[in-house]
Amino acid sequence: MYKAVIFDLDNTLLNYSSSEWESMQNTVNGHEISQSETFTWEQFWGSFQKINMRYWNERNKAGHHILEVLEYSFRDTLKELELDCSISNALANRYWKLFCHTCHFEEYAQDLLANLHENYQLAIISNGIGEAQRSRLQVGKIAHYFDELIISDEVGYWKPDKKIFETALAQLNIHHTEALFIGDSLHDDYHGSINAGIDFCFYNPKGLLLEKEMRPTYTIEHLQEVKEILIEG
Fold this sequence. Notes:
Blueprint lengths: L3 E4 L8 H13 L3 H4 L5 H22 L3 H15 L7 H13 L8 H8 L4 E6 L3 H10 L8 E4 H4 L6 H11 L6 E5 L2 H11 L2 E5 L14 E3 L4 H8 L1
Parallel strand pairs: 1-2, 1-4, 2-3, 4-5, 5-6
Helix pairs in contact: 1-5, 3-4, 4-5, 9-10
C-alpha cells in the first residue's frame, strides 16, 4: 500500500519541451536572430539545443550558474551563425525570466494531482534548477499539492544517484516500499528508482520500446492511468 507518490517534473507533470520552445521564441522575437534571412529558425534552434546540452552536462564539473550556461550557449550559437554575440547576456537573462514564468502541463496532470493530494503524500524529485521549478509550480497553481520538493541543485545530488531518492523518503518519513515514483527518463528515473528500491512507474506517452533488461513496475501512456495503479495496489 503506497503512502506517497513521487513525481519527476519535466516532461512528466510539466511539458518542458513546450515551455522551452515558447520561451525561446519569445526571447529571440524582435532581435536580429528572428529577422535574419541567412538561416531558418530550425537551424538556430537545432544549433542552440546541441550547444546548450553540452554546457548543461558540464555545468556541475565546471561550476557554472544556469545564467552562465545560457549565456555561453547563446554566444556560441550566434558565433556559429555568424551573428553579433554581444547580446548573449541580454538574451540569456530574458530567456531565463520567461522560462521561469512559463508553465505547460502534460495531459491529465492537473486532474491527477487534484485527485491524489487528499489521500497521498505528494513530492517531486527533479534534476532541474530550484528557482525555475518552484516558480513554474507557482505559475501553474499546483505548488500547494506537494508536501516536499527535492531539487538537485538544492540538495547536491542528481538522479540517478539513490541519495536524492533517499532524501525524499527521509523528508516524507516513509519506507522505500511505501512510495511509487513516476517519471519519463529511463536513465535518471528508472535507474534512480531501482537504485533506491522504489517501485517505478514509467510514463511513456510516445510508446518507446524498452530494452529486455528494463522492467519498470508499471508502464503507462497517460497520467490518468496512475489512479488505476493505485486502486490495484
